[in-house]
Amino acid sequence: MNKELDDVSDPSDAFLLEEMGDLASKEKSLKEVEAAIQCLKRKRLYEQQVEQLGNFQLCIHDQMIMLEGAKATIETVDALRTGAATMKAMQKATNIDDVDKTMDEINEQTDNMKQIQDALKTTICVFLGIVKKPLNLKKQQETRCFDDDDDVFLFL
User: Fold this and answer.
1) What are the sequence ranges of the domains in the chain?
2) What sign does the CA torsion over 19, 25, 31, 32 have?
3) Contact, 106 vs 99, CB < 8 A?
4) Helix (H) or strand (E) holding 136
5) 79-95 pLDDT per residue, tens
6) Where are the coiled-coil regions (predicted)?
7) Does the reported pTM lie above 0.70?
């Protein structure tokens, strides 16, 4: 037994013990390195998942924009349909014969007003006593009244 104790106390045995301690620390370091590598792999995996989620968010955002555009298009088409239906109803309510009749009445009233204005021009010139003859010019639509001196013109 003493011999066994001497063997343990032998300097070469101390070297072996030291080597075993170094191996244990290297093994521990190796385990830490492997754990660090595993952590880096998980970190890379998480970063890839974050990037993938970001891409999903962009796709969802693009889809939201497309849906808003589609909604605006549908609203525009609905407004155009409503406008077309309203215009069609208005055209049904308006008869072309009624439009022609209304235009004829307007033209008739315009002609009546012109005749009244011509009659008033002649009356004013006669009333003033300065008319030799009223001239009704079709192109210019005016009556010229002449004074006896032929120097004064009265345009109505």
Assistant:
1) 1-94, 95-156
2) negative
3) no
4) strand 135-136
5) 999 999 999 988 888 77
6) none
7) no
